[in-house]
Amino acid sequence: MKTGTRFLLTTLIAAMPLAAAAQEDVTVGFAIALSGFVAPYDDGPYKAAKLAIEDINAKGGLLGRKIVEVSADTASDPAQGATAATDVLSKNAELVMVTCDFDFGAPAALVAQSQNKIAFSSCAADAKFGVQGIGPNAYTMATATNHQGAILAEFAWNTLGKRNVYILNDLQVEYNKSLCSNFEKRWRELAGGEGVSGYDEYNAGNDTVIAAQVSRMKDAEAKSDVIMFCGAINGGSYVRQIRAAGIGLPMITGESMDGTYWLEAVPDLSEFYNLTYGSIHGDDPNPRINDFVAKFTTSYGEAPVTGHALTGYGVIEAWARAVEAAGSFEADAVRAKLDAFSGEDLLVGKTSFTSDLHINNNRPMTIIKIDGGKASAIGVFDAEKTPEITF
Question: What pTM does this model have?
Answer without folding.
Answer: 0.89
